[in-house]
TrEMBL record:
Family annotation (SUPFAM superfamilies): HIT-like
Name recorded for this polypeptide: Histidine triad (HIT) family protein
Domain HIT: 7-114
Motif (Histidine triad motif): 99-103
Organism: Virgibacillus alimentarius
Source organism superkingdom: Bacteria
InterPro entries, per the entry: HINT (IPR039384), Histidine_triad_CS (IPR019808), Histidine_triad_HIT (IPR001310), HIT-like (IPR011146), HIT-like_sf (IPR036265)
């Protein structure tokens, strides 16, 4: 998709409405219309980048540098019992809008939102984990 058709780019450019929480030269944050929980906020880079794989380090740095401040503002405002950070990266992981975005999802007692991963500890030995770590590390050193 051309970024000119991107709904998040249109929000940044003021072509579509949003409930803005924060904005500076690099980042725009606004309330997610779904409000999975009260205060559910999306934080996006102003520079269009499709997903985490496509994101230059400097854009990621600017984006992630703002998240603690925004999360703390949500915490002070609504006193959640915790916060989840979520990124759906690519269609197979549930990404619907192809402009990188981080969900800040405040958690409340009995909020009905489930974000608990399955535990597969019994399926992997320390040797298996060390082999996987070696494979990933090799890819990092090759690039």
């Amino acid at each position: 998709m051309d970024h000119q058709d991107c709904i998040f780019c249109k929000i940044i450019n003021g072509e579509m409405p949003s409930a803005k929480v924060y904005e500076d030269e690099h980042v725009y944050a606004f309330l997610d219309i779904s409000q999975v929980t009260k205060g559910h906020t999306l934080v996006i880079p102003k520079k269009h980048t499709k997903d985490l794989y496509d994101t230059p380090p400097e854009v990621a740095g600017e984006l992630f540098a703002r998240i603690p401040r925004i999360a703390n503002a949500i915490k002070e405002t609504y006193q959640p019992v915790g916060i989840n950070l979520l990124n759906n990266n690519e269609k197979g992981a549930g990404q619907v809008i192809f402009h990188l975005h981080i969900h800040i999802i405040p958690r409340y007692e009995d909020d009905g939102f489930s974000f608990k991963g399955e535990n597969h500890t019994d399926e992997y030995s320390l040797e298996n984990l060390q082999q996987m770590a070696k494979e990933i590390s090799k890819e990092l050193s090759d690039n």
